[in-house]
Design a protein that fits this description.
With 503 residues, this protein is of the alpha/beta class. 37% of the residues lie in helices and 18% in strands. The chain contains 17 helices and 23 strands. The longest helix has 20 residues, at 82-101. It is globular, with a radius of gyration of 23 Å. It binds 4'-deoxy-4'-aminopyridoxal-5'-phosphate. 4'-deoxy-4'-aminopyridoxal-5'-phosphate (PMP) binds at residues 116-118, 145, 147-148, 197, 201, 226, 228-229, 253, 255, 400.
Length: 503
């Protein structure tokens, strides 16, 4: 749990029981929950979406609010007409709401950037490398997504990967704090920052990021947090409980916060971005331009947001975060924890199903992400069968965390896991299956997934007979006879033509 005692600055609306009731009401308010697909047994089913760690579904309430706001739509770079003034105000509020959601004080700036954490971390790495060129080393952990590893290698220099703790069962848990402290001390002079994920996209395990920040600060290093997986699932304060625990840069992805189509957000200490040449230059960020020189405005975030912003996306993100904040992230966290505990219990009871990473929430708490393999069956086949026979959407392969997945697979084995010595992409097949939750998921969804997995585990040969490997190195499998051509599912051209004909 990350500092859930700390209040976010968006005050929850009403008593806890009221907020729990509102959360219940919210569960059905997402686009795509009632989408139906044909199944391999000639039936049709409403899909069960268990792939929220990849992207979660869009909150219709926020969408509706944004649609109404867009009646004022205009470019924020226009100044005087009413629409432009309304939009400029709303865009400004969007920055403030994102900052409030993570309890950012006036020392921080919120920059909308790209479409997710990848853009944010690349930008952060470039800025911190330029800001502190004498510090050419970054410490990160073994559980990182490639987005929280490769940008540091590319822009800063050397990256040291700290191992993870093992729980009493020998399963990987949080970052090993003793090893981290040792690495920080060893590289104190060169260490620019520690870059750590708040929660793993592979095991769901939550890291103590404020303690990590405090350790980094002791040697003059910074702390950069990847909040891709945590932002929509846990209460969070960038300031932490004490001055030395404050996070220096936090990156979030809008598409993982029930707001696909929105930008990513960087919440950073202003001092880190101030005074540097902006990462991108162009319109909207300059005081004066001559043919031979230009002067960039000083204000943040304006100087880091050249060009016309993704206004609808930014508003959608802010409206969504405001709604989550008003329900209360404490209630949201508790709700997901209950579902995760239930899912772990149901999955653990399935013969031949191995879960990766610590399953003991009391030792290594986790968000609603569970990865596993079934003995005797490849991850790609299990994932395809869940989709084709049960209408259950989950993710497989290596989740853009190859070193970590490889390490987890090396330890446990199983066919899904290790048809070639724990190797992982691009031209070998191992990986895992991942189930991940959003606010819309219920115990019924977990039951459906557990029953489906139990059925697949009980009849591996029957399922295997229905599938063939794709042989493209992905580890994916396809049904031998059942087909669902995506082009038949939806045609934008047909929709438009229908409208034109009826116009
Ligand atoms: N970090 C983590 C932990 C993630 O799960 C992801 C997305 N899977 C990313 C970073 C990258 O985020 P995005 O794809 O939004 O850039």
């Amino acid at each position: 749990m990350i500092d859930s005692t700390l209040p976010t600055q968006i005050d929850p609306l009403g008593a806890r029981t009221e907020r729990q009731q509102r959360l219940e009401a919210l569960r059905s308010q997402f686009t795509g929950l009632d989408t139906e697909y044909p199944l391999a047994d000639d039936t049709t089913a409403r899909r069960i979406y268990l792939d929220s760690a990849a992207s979660n579904l869009r909150l219709t309430v926020a969408d509706d609010v944004v649609r109404r706001a867009l009646r004022h739509y205009a470019n924020t770079h226009s100044q005087l007409h009413f629409g432009a003034r309304v939009m400029t105000h709303l865009y400004h509020r969007a920055h403030e709401i994102v900052g409030d959601f993570v309890d950012a004080s006036d020392d921080y700036t919120v920059i909308f950037n790209g479409s997710g954490v990848t853009g944010g971390l690349n930008r952060t790495a470039r800025v911190l490398a330029e800001r502190r060129p004498e510090r050419d080393l970054v410490i990160t952990t073994m559980m990182e997504h490639h987005a929280n590893d490769l940008p540091h290698r590319k822009h800063v220099g050397e990256v040291v990967h700290v191992p993870l703790e093992k729980d009493p069962d020998g399963e990987a848990g949080r970052v090993d704090m003793a090893a981290l402290r040792a690495a920080i001390q060893e590289h104190a002079d060169r260490l620019n920052y520690v870059a750590v994920t708040a929660a793993s996209n592979v095991t769901g395990v939550i890291n103590p990021v404020h303690k990590i920040a405090s350790m980094a600060h002791e040697v003059g290093a910074l702390c950069v947090v990847d909040a891709a997986q945590s932002a929509a699932h846990l209460p969070f304060s960038v300031q932490g409980g004490a001055e030395d625990e404050a996070i220096d840069v936090l990156c979030m992805s809008g598409h993982k916060i029930y707001a696909p189509g929105s930008p990513g957000a960087i919440v950073a200490r202003k001092a880190l971005f101030e005074g540097l040449e902006p990462q991108e230059v162009g319109g909207g960020i300059v005081n004066r331009v001559e043919t031979d020189r230009y002067e960039i405005m000083e204000e943040l975030p304006e100087r880091e947001e050249a060009g016309t912003p993704n206004l609808p996306g930014a508003l959608r993100l802010a409206a969504t975060l405001y709604l989550l904040g008003r329900i209360g992230m404490d209630v949201i966290e508790e709700d997901e924890r209950t579902l995760t505990q239930y899912a772990l219990e149901r999955f653990e009871a399935i013969d031949g199903l191995q879960i990766y990473g610590s399953h003991r929430l009391e030792v290594a708490d986790r968000i609603g992400v569970i990865t596993f393999n079934l003995d005797d069956l490849p991850h790609g086949l299990v994932t395809a069968a869940l989709n084709d026979y049960f209408g259950i959407a989950v993710r497989n392969e290596c989740f853009c965390a190859q070193p970590f997945v490889r390490e987890l697979l090396g330890r446990t084995g199983g066919e899904g896991a290790s048809s070639t010595e724990g190797e992982c992409a691009p031209d070998s097949q191992p990986g895992m299956v991942r189930v991940s939750f959003g606010l819309y998921n219920t115990k019924e969804d977990v039951d459906a997934a557990a029953d489906a997995l139990a059925d697949i585990a009980a009849r591996p040969d029957e399922y295997r007979a229905q599938y063939r490997p794709l042989l493209n190195g992905s580890g994916d499998w396809t049904h031998r006879t059942f087909e669902y051509p995506p082009e038949e599912a939806f045609s934008m051209e047909d929709e438009i033509d229908d409208w034109l004909r009826s116009a």
